[in-house]
Amino acid sequence: MLKLKDGEKGIITSIRLDYNAQKKLLTYGIGKGSLILKHYSPEFSGLCNFSINGRSVSLRKSDAALIDLVKFVEE
Amino acid sequence: MNSIGLVGKPNSGKSSLFNLLTGLHQKVGNYSGVTVEKKEGSFKNYQITDLPGLNSLWIDTQDEQISQTAILQHANNQQPLIFVVNGNQLNGGLILFSEIADLQAPLCLVINYKDELEKNETVIDTVTLSNQLNCEVILMNSVTGEGLDALVNVMENNKFKTPNSFCRSQYDTLSDEGINNDYINRLNNLNKNIDETVFTKINEDFAQRQLLVNNIITRTVKEKTVDSKLMLKTKKWDKVLLHPIWGVFIFLAVMLLVFQSVFTFASIPMDWIDAGFASLSDWSSNNIGIPWLADLISNGILAGFSGVLIFIPQIVILFFLLGVLEHTGYLSRISHLSDRFLQKFGLSGKSVIPLMSSWACAIPAIMSARMIEDPKERMALILASPLMTCSARLPVYTILIAILIPQEGTRFFDIRGLLLLELYMIGVIATLIVSWFIHKRIQLKSESLWTLEMPLYRMPNWRNVFYNAYSKTKSFVVEAGKIIFIISILLWVLASFSPKSDAFIDKKFEEYSSISKTGKIERESIALEYSYAGYMGKFIEPAIIPLGYDWKIGIALITSFAAREVFVGTLATIYSVGSEEEKPVINKLRTEVNMQTGELRFNRSTSISLLLFYAFALQCMSTVAIVKKESASWKYAALQFFGFLALAYFFALIGYRLF
Ligand SMILES: Nc1nc2c(ncn2[C@@H]2O[C@H](COP(=O)(O)OP(=O)(O)O)[C@@H](O)[C@H]2O)c(=O)[nH]1
Ligand SMILES: [Mg+2]
Q: What b/e readout covers B84-96, taking b as 16+ CB neighbours within 10 angstroms?
């Protein structure tokens, strides 16, 4: 997720967090196949922010790094 | 009375709706055994409960656990639930709705944020939606109350309906007795640590609900897919407010403003309260004929009341301003900015506000630690935050610093101010180190994943801000108030009664008066010396001599354990100053001589040692009581009290030896 640039969209391909964490993400609507919009992950801060289904959520970068995405390009 | 529960995701507008319905007819309590806030109120002949927000019935946090239990109970008793959803986030909201619908409880769906839906030109076909779900659907704005009539209509005519189920049949199992449904069982028996099979099940459940909900939404909602205006505005603001330089700068400025207003605005009503109680107390000592009763009223009861009331202005202002920060959405940005730094100490960005509140008073700070989901972080915060310099320490510091540094500062360089700043820094550093230590040592399970939701910036809902400040202040007065009050009376008893007779004290008074060089000794100070408190001071003297104190300071230390700010008043009485004004107390203390060594009593070593003692010791029984309540155990409260006492003794000893 950290490789995505600010303002880019991505589709989640895999999540390498433990099952409890994955379940929590699921309740936010974040799972395999979800489309997210990356907002920002500034250098100085330890957090990465994105939106999913109209909600804006921040994760710690160490956790976000374990979420793999492919870039989503709208035609 | 019929019971109705308000359920929904966090920030869907439940509390706004709750305040709208119940107004002042609400009470805030606790769910039994845990410290999750329970808000109940009445509307007409209904009892309404504002349940904690939850993301899913497949629960994760303690808040969610509470909500889930309450929801299952409502379903079991066929008591109605009002489901509140943020209209901008219909997708996620309806998935949760489907989970609850599968419990087959009587429901009604409130789609909130009507105003924003209109602004974004989103149109929801509520009639079709209502038919699809088989349940009443109401569009509402729970800030203005638009649409409330329709909801009241549903409540009055009991139009709650059991909606169509979504995935319930997936959980049907066939047994000898016929078909059983396993859904509720599964929810109830969700383990703390889930494994792959359970996760796969939940994942499938979600995927299916997602499909069904998408289907419904495409048929009933027409939305423009442009970024809404509010979102664009939020993005622009975030560019500035989360900027690595400007963002931090603005954050510091906002905090400075908040605390400046807490201290300056509050000082005006605090002076009134002070003056009001002083004249009340004068009046009662002059007009009540029975001396002991007059004394009890003016020095026991009234002192107790003023000890509680004096903090109210600061707390009201603090909670009002923090409420504004929270309801505008800026609070989450503060968490964003500070998370990385605080993480090093076992805290997170969510701890900033409780930490800063403890500069005013540790009690509201510890109470607001409730908003932290991680049990480990929450405990670290509760146990460490009373080390921050609360405002009750300020009068003690001021007096001791004035004794320590006789000359007043010039306009440009004020060494007294510098010393005060150092004491504040010691407080902050000690808090961080202690919280780091607790986080390392404590045996509690951490949360599975740290997440922070960033709401859009909005104008605050003043009704919410008001009720928030009101209920927090009320619980401070109730929780801390009764303890401060009881202890004040207890102290009065200890200081007013003596195991010796009156005649004995009269004799001592004459003896002392005749040998005293300065001549000015008041009977009151002799009475205090031979009171129970005086004997306690003498009893602990051997323990505090290494710190450079005598039994007189011992009395002040003991009374300070009720609340620090009585330190000054006690010393004034012991040294027969006859006034609690700062100047005469300072002058008297500065010239007081240590009988044994002939040196000044409050010399540099003793003053520094005392400053350090007050910086670390937990001299506030209300804090002890609140910690006991919030940690739900005496163990932690006792650990904290004695731990801080040990720290205080240690640093006071070092201070005395070094300087
Ligand atoms: N514009 C608008 N804002 C709302 C509406 N309902 C709630 N809010 C705001 O949304 C925020 C969260 O509301 P709150 O009642 O605390 O949500 P809760 O977490 O579900 O209790 C507050 O700032 C409210 O002022 C609404 O209908 N329209
Ligand atoms: Mg709420």
A: bbbbbbbbbbbbb
> Is B330's C-beta closer than 6 angstroms to any atom of ligand 1?
no
Q: How far is the CA of B295 from the centre of ligand 1 (A)?
A: 51
Higher pLDDT, B25 or B68: B68
Burial (Cβ within 10 Å: 0-12, 13-18, ≥19) of residue A16? exposed
The Cα–Cα gap between B98 and B102 comes to: 6
Distance from CA of B200 to the nearest CA of A (A): 9
Contact B115/B170 with Cβ under 8 angstroms?
A: no
Q: What b/e readout covers B545-562, taking b as 16+ CB neighbours within 10 angstroms?
A: eebbbbbbbbbbbbbbbb
Q: Which domains does chain B have, with CATH numbers?
A: 2-224 (3.40.50.300)
Q: What ipTM was predicted for this assembly?
A: 0.93
CA distances from B619 to A17, B188, B411, B502, B648 (A): 44, 44, 34, 32, 10
What is the chain B residue with the closest CA to A24?
Answer: B60
Residues of A in Cβ contact (< 8 Å) with B55:
24, 27-28
H runs (alpha helix) in B288-414: 291-295, 302-309, 312-328, 330-343, 352-357, 362-368, 375-384, 394-404
What's the B58 CA to ligand 1 centre distance in angstroms? 24
Task: Please tell me the distance from the alpha carbon of residue B556 to that of residue B399, in angstroms, as a whole number.
Answer: 13
Max mean pLDDT range (B22-36, B57-71, B149-163):
B149-163
User: What is the model's pTM?
Assistant: 0.81
CATH topology of domain A9-71: SH3 type barrels. (2.30.30)
Q: pLDDT tens across B471-518, in order?
A: 778 877 887 778 778 888 888 888 888 888 888 888 888 887 777 665
Residue B221 DSSP SS3: strand
The domain locations on chain A are 9-71
Q: Are B623 and B386 in contact (CB under 8 A)?
A: yes
Encode A19-65 in three state secondary structure.
Answer: HHHHHHHHHCCCCCCCEEEEEECCCCCCEEEEEECCEEEEEEHHHHC
